[in-house]
Amino acid sequence: MISNGFRTFTPKAVLFDMDGVIFDSMPNHARSWHKAMKQCGIEMTEDEAYEYEGMRGVETIKMKARQQWGRDISDEEAQRMYDLKTQYFAACPPTEKMAGVESLMKKIKDCNCIIGVVTGSGQHTLLDRLEQSFPGLLKKELMVTSMDVKRGKPNPEPYLAGLQKVGAEPWEAIVIENAPLGVRAAVAAHIFTIAVNTGPLPDQLLYDEGADIVLKNMAEVQHLWNQLFSK
Description:
Layout: E1 13-16, H1 26-40, H2 46-51, H3 57-69, H4 75-90, H5 101-110, E2 114-118, H6 124-133, E3 143-144, H7 157-166, E4 173-177, H8 180-188, E5 192-196, H9 203-208, E6 213-215, H10 218-228
Parallel strand pairs: 1-2, 1-4, 2-3, 4-5, 5-6
């Protein structure tokens, strides 16, 4: 942390990923990806869904089709397949907030920091819940979704867009991520990145993508925040 100047830096904004960070939605996503892709003739395990998390859905499907079928598919074909995945996800039980995330957001807000959301998701069933589930903490105008960018994670474009929305420079923000591709995107945007490993992937994979810190859950993130920033 010292090498990054973190101890002497008081951020003005914190950018959260959504799936697996704000909502405990990744198990539903993983099952939905596996079922939909199997129906479409593409092999994709549930664990792979965690590896590709953060990438725009159509991009994920086009990549898997290229790998397994040896050809490029159109945006329209990929979108039809992603629509099937969306249908499976919509039929899943409602997802809960990640344990401790609301308490962490309140601590961040108490430090007069702006909270933004940067997600690769375009699932309206989740996006519509964000503002109403976190009243006074999250605002739609401070959210970046897959519909707001041309290039999704691991490209830095989503986090650069997030910086613009919250009015911060890279050195004035912190990212809280859980996905390898999301970490790569945040690091490419030159933002200090905390990875919270809420899935089945090894910690080292997150460190390999450039995470500055890897923690187990939101309670550990809040403990770190209290140590460094609470008054």
